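Quick one: co-fold with iron/sulfur cluster.
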Amino acid sequence: MAGLYVHIPFCQTRCRYCDFYSTTVLHRREAYVAALLREIGSRKQELTEPIRTIYFGGGTPSQLRAEDIARLIEAIGTETAEEITVEMNPGDADETYLTTLRRAGVNRLSMGVQSMHDERLRLIGRRHTAAQAREAVSMARKAGFENLSLDLIYGLPGQTMAEWQEDVEQLLALKPEHISAYCLQWEEGTALMQMMERGEVEMTDDETEMAMYDWLMERLQEAGYAHYEVSNFARPGFASRHNSSYWDNTPYLGIGAAAHSYDGKIRSSNPADIAQYIRGAAREEEVLTEDDRYNERIMLGLRTARGVARTEIRDGQAVERLIQRGLLREEGTHVVATRQGLHILNSIIETLMI
Ligand code: SF4
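Sure, here it is.
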């Protein structure tokens, strides 16, 4: 089975921490949808396996009209799709919009809530409020969505441990099936980074970020969520099937500007520029060597609760040392990052990559 990703690179406003590829110039949306339909028509047959998941990510997919998302889904075809996700900004939710998505076959929404404190949301440049997030969840339930994923960010400037705990508690009160929680990344060139350089905001120290992550893991486990990937938690049966297929190295087709595709050997990427994409500029291709694929398996596998098969890892002595230091543990035939290991996962991955 395969996955299909559609990138919607439009955002109404720019969040201060974000360095993703997206634009606030919205007048090209119509031409963009036409280009997506063209690409779907010409590339769908590249997938030799049935489409199991469809994921609209961004950017902000909810900046497209719901009817346009419905047209795109129809062009892709939903016969074999088990999970169709649309990422949305809680500020874009209204009953008609959500009902149209649901009727089009969308069965999972992923909402960027990020914080349940309006002051913090304003500081990071989010355009919705906590009240809008609550309302969006309730409207989504009324529209028939039984699979909601809500995102939070920790390590935000000025966010205390007590505020973070309130964020998580208030999110849990909304009873989402899935929660993604990311540590704020300070990216060069973002407005937030410039604010930090001017001394207007401060970075959260590492110890506090680690304590926030530790508390989150404890609390969500106690609330019945499985920690199935470093940043992702789900009630039984609600792990993201789409993202799980990336972590499992399954082939996927990426449609839209800056979208990547992978057929098991070759990774290709569309131009990361809307105008070029609309004009139909060529994709870039990269043939992955056996070493590249090995590195991907290590990188993706160690992010998940399943881990990596021990026999798969080339440097057995390094694994042994990591187990002795309490950073990896054995789970049957696999090795998995321990809670302590999750704090320094990138350096563990680097140690094992070639
Ligand atoms: S909505 Fe998402 S993609 Fe758009 S600016 Fe904000 S964080 Fe970036």
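If it helps, The CA atoms of residues 19 and 216 lie 25 Å apart.
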